[in-house]
Amino acid sequence: MHRRSFKRHDLYLNRELSWLAFDERVLGEATNPANPLLERLKFLAISCSNLDEFFEVRVAGVAQQTVHGLNVKAPDGLAPSEVLDEIEVRCHRIVQRQYDLLNDDLLPALERENIRFIRRSQLLPEERRWAARYFHEEVYPVLTPVVIDPSHPFPQVLNKSLNFIVTLEGTDHFGREVELAIVQAPRILPRILRLPDVRDGDNFVFLSAIIHAYVDELFPGLKVTGCYQFRVTRNSNLFIDEEEVENLLKALEGELRYRHRGDAIRLEVADNCPEEVSERLRVQFELDPEDVYRVNGPVNLYRMMDVMGMVKRPDLRDAPHRPVLPPRFVEAEAEGKSIFDVLRGGDVLLHHPFESFSPVTELLRQAAEDPQVLAIRMTLYRTSTDSALLKSLIKAAESGKQVAVVVEIKARFDEERNIAWARRLEDAGAQVVYGIVGFKTHAKMLLVVRKEQGGLKFYGHLGTGNYHPSTANLYTDLGLLTTDPVLTNEMLELFMILTGAGRYPPFKKLVVAPVGLHKKMMALIDAERKRALAGGEAWMLLKMNALTEPKVIEALYKASNAGVKITLIVRGVCCLRPGVPGVSENIEVRSVIGRFLEHTRIFVFGNGGDPLIYCGSADWMDRNFFRRIETVFPIENPAFKKRILEEILGSYLADTQQSWRLDGGGQYHQVVPAEGEKTVSAFARLMKLGEEGKKV
Questions:
Q1: Distance, C-alpha 399 to centroid of its chain
Q2: Which residue among the candidates 212, 351, 352, 442 is catalytic per the annotation?
Q3: pLDDT in tens, 421-466
């Protein structure tokens, strides 16, 4: 086949539309009867949160291209304006599905379980008295109604905030004819409220219903003719020229103040809002008619997630899962040994959330307290507000240890938290750097330098996920605790470059972006291609969150065309089109969506019967290969390789409950068991293996 034929537009799926297909798979879990009822509600909320971020970042970016006349086509051949047109069609379809699912399926099912959302017209007398008291004591004092007239311009509506547009009739005390007003619901107020125990079961009312019921009290002497909730989604991309600012942290803090006030991208409004009123809002926010979404229910379905913590119904939730502490750490605790004793006995591969994240937390805690530890180095991309890891770093710095932390303060939507931690670390005496100008530091590395008999010894941790104990219980990730002298020395060299300057030395094991990762992956793919052409067995099994980079996709097409069997497990965006004759008929693409968020990146190459396995922080996207600092590391221990191939990846390939397969037309189809076969859940299988004490 001619070389250029692999670059045809029809061989590539559009990135934005593939992302929407991912959100539809998440929404599919809200319809999956295999999931408990409250878990289905959770998936609905997640799909709405995903769509919010899609508008804030992806749609905003494409819209900016059209505004500035940038008609650069993606590998799939679509111009930005064409992408926007298709996004509008699909997003309206998704939103309609979300509200149909809520109103026609989930709310009736919840009511059958005595979990109710009471409309204001359905409130019983005692509930109505409670609602009136709550409005007057908790809500009324913090509301600021703003009348729209020449002396009261349209107020600033914050990104994704709950607002009401109120239509009025009458003349106020100053003789003004009043027609419209805006009421903003402060973010400090809960959006879902539990009603008094008048009825059986769990009964709730939306804050919007209470405000609506008593909105006339905000406008005494005037007639309220209508009250309609609305929400605006804004462009949340930050704009900072890193090469021009002297202090990146201060510049970012300044930019964050304007995130809630970016250009409007989408307007959601109650479906009973009169056309002339919604049109007034549309014009005010300078949106096109296609950017208006009329919804039958709360304008922010993500708030339904609050119900998960308000209803104590374990029968409607997934069975509790408790990560297992690997046997070596259990034995060490019983024998009073340190984590350093454990790691001197051999490396440890952790698979979260089936295995506990606590060994990583414990490594930092003991390192902070151990007088033999001289230095700690760490990258920080995302972490929790109350992070035990960061507290250990602060303690280590305060005790005089050399602590260096590479903090990525541009981690989207975690910027403020990371800035706060950066300041606390600096105050404690740690050296805090913000990476390299123009590149996000996405690598997951932790290195402890300890003085031992015979000299200094390095203890390292490399992972696929963030140093975030909370998400370690929700995301699937792999982490390698190691004392490998080659690997840990290369980690030290990389830290030196991140905090200082210099050129990357030729690493033997660690693979780093943006310098060598793309070249390495391309070489490994090509080696399989050549092996297939020579008549050998050639295959790849690649698991990642996203696959978008055109050159690596082209390399996969060439390998497939040569006869390489390629299995891809891609959670989210996949721009590769499988099953195209003469191009990708040897490529299968799967996606697994379920209880835990798939986050591991595992790259396996057949290598003629001795598989090469790499894990790391990078997806196969332009940004990961060329605009981020990423680390990918080899798995060399035979037992670890067997675990990854047979137990971890094998479980995903066997899944027939929450697995989807991508066809050549760009559509995903849920995998179902063959007739007579039992349904297999990868997550259930991995949890069972963990609970049985096996290493997974």
A1: 35
A2: 442
A3: 778 888 888 888 887 778 888 999 999 999 999 899 999 999 999 8
